[in-house]
Write a structure and sequence with these properties.
mainly beta; two-stranded antiparallel ribbon; SH3 type barrels; disordered N terminus
Length: about 130
């Protein structure tokens, strides 16, 4: 009985842990009177015969640590991008949760996104801007 309780507590604590943070933070805001993230994007162009998900990375690189996975059709906030536009910094509600990510209102200063939603980097070729 003594071993079950600590394992149960460990499992409960890890389930409640916040999402991993990116090595290169996603930046939001900085444009007065406009939303902190200016666009919404939809995951598209995934190979249905492949793994059929888009990896969210900790920095704009296919070699970076995977923070999460997005499914085809999923809508995210497009908040940041690399200079060449090949990677987009996104903010999204974790699977199974419908959170207000707090980026649909102005953030007057350019700042690191700190939650409550998840954030990270995706290949821009799999993101279609649908609003903004």
């Amino acid at each position: 009985m003594r071993r079950i309780l600590p394992l149960f507590l460990l499992a409960a604590l890890s389930a409640a842990a916040p999402p991993s943070r990116p090595e290169r933070p996603v930046m939001v805001g900085g444009v007065p009177d406009l939303d902190a993230c200016l666009s919404n994007g939809q995951v598209t162009g995934l190979n249905p015969r492949g793994d059929n998900f888009l990896s969210v990375r900790s920095r704009p690189s296919a070699r970076a640590r995977e923070l999460g996975r997005l499914r085809g059709g999923q809508v995210v906030w497009a908040c940041d991008e690399t200079a060449d536009g090949s990677w987009t910094g996104v903010v999204f509600s974790p699977p199974g949760r419908d959170l207000d990510c707090g980026v649909g209102t102005p953030a007057p200063r350019h700042q690191v996104y700190r939650g409550p939603c998840a954030s990270g980097w995706v290949s821009s070729r799999f993101l279609k801007i649908i609003a903004g």
